[in-house]
Amino acid sequence: MNDKMNINKTKYRYFMDCFDLSKKRTAIRYTIPVDKAPPSPEGFYNRDYPVVDISNKKFVDMIEKTAKALIALGVKKGDYVIMCSSNVPEMLYMDYALNKIGAIPNYVYPNITVDEMRFYLSEIETHYIYMLDEPEIRNMVLESIDGFDIKAVIASSVLESFPAMFKKIARLKNGKTNFRESDLVIKWSDFINGGKFIKKVEENPYIKNDTCSIVHSSGTSKTPKAIMETNENVNAISRIYDIVDFKYVKNNIALQTIPHFVEYGKTTNHTYLCHNVIIVFIPEMNPKNFYDLIEKFKPHYSYSTPSHIRELVKRPVDMSNSILIVVGGDAFDDIELKAYKYMKENNSNALIYQGYGSSEMSAVTMFNLPNAHKVGSLGKPAGDVKAKIVEVDTFDEITTPYTVGELCLTGPGVTKGYAGNSTSETAEVFKIHPDGNIWVHMGDLAYFDEDGFYFYEGRIKNVIARKSFKFAPKEIEDVILKHPYVKQCVIVGKYDKEEGQVPSAHIVLSDNSNAQQTLKEIIELVNNEIQEFHRPTIYKICKSIITTRNNKVNINALKLEDIATLFPGVNGASICISESNDYDYDLTMYCNDVIDVNSAIHFIEHIGKNEKVLNGSIKYIISKEVTTDIYHSTNAL
Q1: Hey, is 62 helix, strand or coil?
Q2: Residue ranges of the alpha helices (H) in 187-262?
Q3: Cβ(394)–Cβ(253) under 8 Å?
Q4: What's the CA gap between 378 and 424, in Å, rounded?
Q5: Is 496 helix (H, G, I), strand (E, B) or coil?
Q6: Which residue intervals of 346-490 are DSSP H helices?
Q7: Which H or E run contains 591?
Q8: pLDDT at 550 > cutoff 80
Q9: What share of the chain is helix, strand, coil (3-state, %, to 5)?
Q10: How sure is the predictor about 578, in pLDDT bands with cuts at 50, 70 and 90?
C-alpha cells in the first residue's frame, strides 16, 4: 500500500515512511523578522528576514537527538509534556520525538496568563514543559508552576537554529533581558547534550486509537476545551490530499502562517513534511509579515487566515509562483472577490480556496479544488470525510438543497473527544447516529446546493430567537457588508425582555470620516432588502469587534456588551480581553449620571447566566467619558 494511504501507524512512523532522505535537500527554511527601520506611514513593515536552512538529514537527526534527550531527562511513554511555543524548528523536533517514544504533547497558546497556565497544569497531570525562551513566556511559565510537581522546563530561543555568530550579534544588539531564573530551566543545548550517552531509542509500537497529542479548541472563553487526537487522525489529514489527487510537488515551497499549537497549523506541517515540501517557518504569527514573506520566499502554497489576505491585497507583489492559497477562519466572504481580482492582477492563475474544519475533526474537512470550485462556498467534503445537514437538536437528515440546518461530519479525522475538565461535554458534540458512526455536531448552520457544495450560514448559538421565531443573522450581515465603507459586521441576538432576542448590529467601518451619514445609508440599505422582522433594532459603529484567542468573533462577549447597555443610565458599553491576570474581560460602561454599580453588575450577571453567555470573570469599569461608539436604535416590533 502507498505509504501515504496507510494511516494505521504512529505519526512518527508515517512521517519516516514518507520523508525523502535519499539526497540532501531543505526540509525547513527558518526565518525571523529583524526591523531595519520603523514602519512606513501606511503601517507597512521595513524588515529583513534572515534565513537558516535545515536539511532533511539534519531534521531527522535532530528528532533522534531530541528523543534521546527526553529519555535521559526521564520522559517516558504516556507522559504529558506541555508545549508552549510558537513556530520554531525545535517545536517540530519535540513533536516527532515525543511521538517516537510514546509521550504526549499538550499544546497551549504561548501568550496565555499565569492563571490559564495553572488551569492547563491542573487539567492534565504534567511533569515536563517545553517553552519558547522569550521573557514574557518564561516569566509566565515559571510563575505558574509554583505548587506543581514539575521536574524540568526545557527552553529554546527563537535564535536556537541560527549560527553562533548570528546569535552573538543579535544578543549584543538586543541587550540584556530581565529573565526570571529557576533551577528547573534547562537550555536547549544542555538538554540535547544530556542525551548523548543514550545509545538507542526504541520506537513506540503502534496501538490503534492511542492518544497522539492534546490540542485545544477555539472557544468563547479563555480556557478552550482539551481534545484528544490519535495518530490515525493526524495521518488522515495528510492522506486527504492524495485521495483528492492534489499534487504537492517535492521541494516546492510552502509558507506556514498558522502556529503549530493550533490544530490547523500542526496537521498542515505534518502534511507538508510527508509530501516533502519545504516549509517556510517564522515564529512571529503576525499577518502584517505576510506580504514580505510572499515577496521574499515566493511560495507555491500557503494556508492562511482572512487577516493575512487583507494585509496581502493592500499592495501589489509578484504572485506568479502561487499554486494554492487556502483560507480558513471566519469573515472571508467580504474580501473573497477582491482577493481573486488581486491574484489575477499580480501574475497568478492560482485560486484562493476557502476551506472549513475544526479541531474536533483534526482541522481539515472540506475545501475547494481546481476542478471543483465555487466562489463563496466551503467546498465539498475532502477525501473520506462525510458531511450531512440535520435539523437542529435532532438526527433527522435534511436532503433538500438550500435548506439550512446543523452541519455534521464524520470520517477518520474524528478525534477521541474532550479530556480534562471538558470530558463531560464530549457526548454533546460527538454523537453516535443510527448508522453506527460517530458524527461531530459542528454547532454551525449550513446548507448544500444541487452540486454538493456546502455554504456556511453562521453559528447555531448565534441564531436569533425573536418571539419564538428563529432565524440566522448571516442574511442581515451580507446586506450590511454591501456598503462600501463597511469593513466588518456581526449581528447578534440581543436580550429583550418582551421579545426574547432582537437583532443587534456591531459594525466596523473602513472610513469613519462621515460615520453618521454612512450609518443612515446602512439602515436604508437594510430597510430596502431585509424583511422588517429580521431588521436590527440597534446599530453600533465601533472601532473593533472582540475576538477569541483563535481570532474568531466572540459572540458571547458581544451579547454581554449589549446586555450592559440595557441597564438604566448606561449610554454605551465596550468589552475587551482583560490585560489583568485576575479577569477574563474588561467591561466598560459609559454613564452620564451616577449609577448603582452593584445593581448594574447583578443585572448583567443575572441576565448573562440565564442567557448562557457569561463565560469567565469580568472587571467592571464605570466611565464618565462620552463613548466614541455611535449608537442608533429603531423601534422594536
Answers
A1: helix
A2: 188-193, 231-243
A3: no
A4: 30
A5: strand
A6: 426-429, 474-480
A7: strand 585-591
A8: no
A9: 30, 30, 40
A10: confident
pLDDT at site 614: 85
Least confident of 74-83, 157-166, 503-512, 609-618: 609-618
The β-bridge relationship of strands 618-623 and 585-591 is parallel
- Residues belonging to the chain: 637
Q: What pLDDT, on the 0 to 100 scale, is given for residue 331?
A: 52
The total of other beta-carbon atoms located within 10 Å of residue 167's CB is 14
Average pLDDT over every residue of 340-356? 79
Diameter of the chain measured on Cα atoms: 77
Q: Do the beta carbons of residue 135 and residue 111 sit within 8 Å?
A: no
Residue 65 sits at φ, ψ, to 5 deg, of -65, -40
CB 352 within 8 Å of CB 325: yes
Task: Give me the torsion for CA of 610, 614, 617, 620, rounded to 10°.
Answer: -80
- What pLDDT digit, counting tens, does each position of 267-325 carry? 999 999 999 999 999 999 888 999 999 999 999 998 888 778 888 888 999 888 888 78
Task: Give the pLDDT score at 498.
Answer: 82
Query: What DSSP state is assigned to residue 532?
Result: G
Average pLDDT on 217-222 reads 53
Tens-digit pLDDT profile for residues 380-426: 999 999 999 999 889 999 999 999 899 999 999 999 999 987 788 89
One-letter amino acid of 561 = E
**625 C-beta neighbours (distance < 10 Å), count:** 9
Report the amino acid identity of residue 327.
V
**What is d(CA 76, CA 120) in angstroms, rounded to the nearest whole number?**
20
Kind plus residue range of the DSSP H or E element containing 284: none
How would you label 247-263 residue by residue, b for 16+ Cβ within 10 Å and e otherwise? ebeeebbbbbbbbbbbb
* pLDDT for the residue numbered 330: 55
198 by Cβ neighbours in 10 Å (0-12 / 13-18 / 19+) ranks as: middle
Q: Which of 490, 465, 498 is nearest to 637 (CA)?
A: 498
The cell 516527532 sits on which residue?
Answer: 96
Query: Angle 412-418-422 (CA atoms, 0-180°, nearest 5)?
Result: 165
Annotate 121-190 with three-state secondary structure: HHHCCCCEEEEECCHHHHHHHHHHCCCCCCCEEEEECCCCCCCHHHHHHHHHHHCCCCCCCCCCEEEHHH
Instruction: Give yes or no for residue 497 having a pLDDT over 50.
Output: yes
* Burial track 140-160 (b if 16+ CB lie within 10 A, e otherwise): bbbebbeeeebebbbbbbbbb
